[in-house]
Queue: 3 jobs
Job 1
Amino acid sequence: MLGDERSGLGEYLRHHRSEMTPRDRPGASPLSHRRVPGLRRQELADIAGISVEYYTRLEQGRASRPSREVLTALARAFRLSNAEQDHLFRLADERPPQPRAPAAEIRPGLQQLLDSLDDTMPVTIHDGRLDMLAFNVAAADLFGPVFDDGPYGHNIAYQAFTSAGLREVLGNEGAEQLARVAAAELRKALSLYPEDEQLRSLFRELSTSSPEFSRHWERGEIGTWRSAMKRVNHPTRGLLAFDSEMLHDPESDHWVMLFTPRRA
């Protein structure tokens, strides 16, 4: 590790320690007052479960490369977000840990965006495991027949190869496009979350029951699509065209898909 990287790591640790308050220390009184902002090194080391001598060397840039276990303990002690934890690992010249799972809940801001566009455009939100988390009223009106119930819920990959209403809504070309994208996105999801048992079970299920999935899987593609033009057959409004755009919230690994109506 280079000297400036050690210095950057120490500075990062000092900054976060200075931002903590005595109430962040287990058992501390919320009425505690300190002349110096932040926790003492001893207090932070106690929370992280490491020696204060070693923690001091880390802050001063005098320690050897910290282990992944120590970095994980520090991230937990500082209550770092995923992005902050990743930065901590990079400062220590370590590869950031793989996320274990996407966030279970949608951020309030995304939910507000979803609801506010009910009268403007269809919007859906799914996570990095391809589980559909939410869709607004406009999306339900448009894609309702596609979202069948099943053992894997509203998982996009599962629906792409099993939904009875898929071809009626998307047409043959659109259904083929979705199947190709779903297989490629499932490959990416499995690489991100290799120990996720539901994803592994889904892959086994589709591999044994869907020749169409096997055909697309053999392409070896991995998800890279962010924009597309989609045509949808609406039961009362006829054939509609949309430009779709995918936006990513990396902290939660949630994907927002916006469907902008094409002008005639």
Job 2
Amino acid sequence: MVYYTLMGQRSLAKLQHVSGEREAAWDTLTAARRLAEKSENPRRWRLIDAAAAELQLREGNVAAAARTLEKAAISAESHSEFERLVYARLLLAQGQPRTAERVLNGLETAAVKEERNGSLITVYVLQALCKRAAGNRAAALDRLGQALSLATSPGYRRVFLDEGPAVAALLPQLRHVAPAFVIELLQAFPHEAAPAPEGLAGPVSKTQFEILRLLDFGLTNQEIADKLGISIGTAKWHLHQIFGKLQARNRTEAVTKAREQGLL
């Protein structure tokens, strides 16, 4: 039961994030992290950490996503398909398309064998981006065309929209694969978002703002947890998110940067 609740919260957070409700998305993941901790099942913790890293990548905060995945021990060797997909996205964002493609090739083999077209569509889209980043545009178009062929009937719009401008740049040359679907996708792509303020790589939630305030007073992790009625693990997780958003290396630097941004 807990697993399905966490899956639902992960999906809700993603929906909130793509709808522009970023603070709500992070609050949803915070609630999910608390629930995951209660289960004492590391796989459930990793599910939420991988979801957090995915949102960090959507926000362009590659360094924070890398730290999140490293701390959760998520890598190319993870058993979970979702974890490996997020890890492949990280490699791609870090400018390692060939390494990312090796991870994706393993996922493709499993998805083909098990006839999981939903997974295969996602893998094909990411493989297309890997090939594009490696300078092989023809192969990128071929892979994206395969994804479109599978996705047209079920209408997997979100898979394409989530990958942003890089996919949008390839779509006009693939109108012949699925004319109506491609036009629908191109119309659905959002306008380019305004860049985040300098020094701030993502929105700070209400809980994280309160933690920053308590950091400024010099409270320890345990004292922060006690004040907010959360576990020390959740407090540390929030601190990890705060460091990423402020691009800070420690508590002192986080407070200094928060003051510079007018958060304190």
Job 3
Amino acid sequence: MSKQVHVIFGTGPLGMAVMRELKRRGVERIRMVNRSGRLSEEAAVEVARGDASQLDEAIALCQDASVVYHCAHPGYTNWPTQFPALTQGIMEGAAAAGAKLVYGDNLYMYGQVDQPLTENLPHRATGKKGLTRAQMAEALLHAHQSGKVRVAIGRASDFYGPGVKESSLGERVFGFALQGKPVDLLGSLDVPHTYTYIDDFAKGLVTLGQEDRALGEAWHIPSAKTLTTREMLGLIFDELGSASKIRTTSRGMVTMIGLFHPMLRELKEMLYEFEHPFVLDHSKFVAVFGPQTTTPHEEAIRHTVRWYKNEMQAQAQRNR
């Protein structure tokens, strides 16, 4: 059988966005992999159930693959204990199939720096989540250099968009604003912060999967213009036609609440992203692959608001 299957590990918002982008580019054979064997929405794709941290399962799930997309992750509080085995399994599966492996990464490994983020920055993270991300990326690139598997890494900043709930611009902003609740954010609203639209992230990852020039390197995926968080909120409120109260959580409050709230305790490590300018430089991607069309924030926010409205309506119907 011809190796034409595009395998996507993870069916959260990024995995689903990659699936949509592959379909847009005419890919016919797509296999989505998660632990349940079900998708949250109807899609004409193959859905496979499996645990990628188990090597035999990962190898079976990657059978006949030409490109494997690693969009999976364990719960945020379980990264150090569960993420490396998950990534190792996906890598072994791609290697066994002779497939390219495209890894959807974030920016935690760089740690706090006082300049725009570029791919040649050293990995200086000191927290456990940043160290976990750094170790996995280094292991994947080492596997590429050793000839074990062909790897490309795509990195994006904090993302938002359809399906994205667990994000700094997720449910506690879009969902709360639509319900008339105060929106919750971390740190300062007035420093520049790159936000990546989920469909732009997916578009960049699929480009890496189609370009052999991408192999063996990490790439920052193009995002729309960097604004301050307050400016992003202004665009969101403009789309909604109304403003919400804004609540910000300081470092001291995160420390205090984190004593009782595991997720906030985990987020403390990343607070620097929202206290200082956090700007993603994607010029390397553009220099190699040419000018990229990113989704303007106004359009991306419009799609995101529409998705949240539909989701809230569907939830209301389920609760009847």
